[in-house]
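Table S2 (continued). Query chain:
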Amino acid sequence: MLAIGDFWNKSIFSKNKSVCFIASGSSYNACKIGEYFLNKNHKNKTKVYLASEFIYNDYPKYDIYFIVSQSGETADTI
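Corresponding output:
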């Protein structure tokens, strides 16, 4: 049986990569939980940005980007 720790050690997050979540609304709130988990437990450099504000600012480059939409139709994430 595969434990969560075994999955995590084999995942893309185990390499201390920087992670960026881009979301809005309730998806943003869910991503904030992921940010807390990754930063606290696995020392990943993780940040969450509002989709509506992301294109207007200069942000550092990240290794992995997740664009999250609850409905799949959020115009800000497109």
